[in-house]
Design brief:
alpha/beta; Glutaredoxin
């Protein structure tokens, strides 16, 4: 490969890194290319513009790098926070397992990352031992989640930030951008439908 070809390849890769979140955001808008809005509109709250999920210094409870385990995959990030995983939390996490399983042959392209401190590790592992768990206190991780919640309209002048964060789930694209937010108490079907569309459109 010549130097000129290498330079072109680098430019193409850089363009692709920028284009993936932009394309996904466009595809999730209603009426894209004249399609039925019911089939194209996102059900989650769009994070506009997408916010990078800062995982550079985040370790999982098993010592692995959260960045290495999620980059290149669609990731469902669920925030438990510092509260115990009660009945509603358990129900939501169980839903995440079922959503992951429902992707069928695409399961390897999806990760489920659960963030909280402390985590009830035995309970979460009993639901699905594939879950990625982190109790990281990294400021970058927390700030990116807060920023995405604000960008999606989840935090307003009369909103309790803790209530807006605890129990929320986000879809993170393969390049590590928080794209869609699902407020605490969301319907499993909404997340399932959005993830299904994103996997289909991305060819994954």
């Amino acid at each position: 490969m010549t130097q000129q070809s290498r330079n072109r390849l680098v430019l193409v890769l850089i363009a692709a890194l920028f284009f993936i979140p932009v394309l996904a955001a466009v595809l999730l808008q209603p009426g894209w290319f004249g399609q039925d809005p019911e089939r194209t509109v996102n059900r989650g709250e769009l994070v506009q513009p997408p916010v990078p999920l800062l995982l550079n210094n985040v370790e999982l409870v098993d010592g692995a790098s959260a960045l290495d385990q999620t980059r290149g995959h669609w990731t469902l990030l669920h925030v438990i926070g510092d509260a115990p995983c009660d009945e509603r939390c358990t129900s939501t996490v169980t839903d995440l397992r079922q959503i992951h399983t429902a992707t069928g042959r695409r399961q390897e392209q999806v990760r489920v990352l659960i963030f909280g401190s402390p985590l009830d590790r035995p309970r979460l592992r009993s639901i699905d031992d594939r879950f990625l768990l982190t109790e990281s206190s990294d400021v970058g991780l927390a700030m990116s989640i807060v920023a995405a919640t604000g960008q999606s309209g989840g935090i307003g002048p009369n909103t309790d930030a803790g209530e807006a964060l605890t129990g929320a789930t986000f879809i993170v694209d393969p390049e590590g951008n928080l794209m869609l937010r699902y407020a605490p108490g969301y319907a499993r079907e909404d997340l399932n439908k959005d993830l299904e569309k994103l996997l289909k459109w991305s060819g994954r």
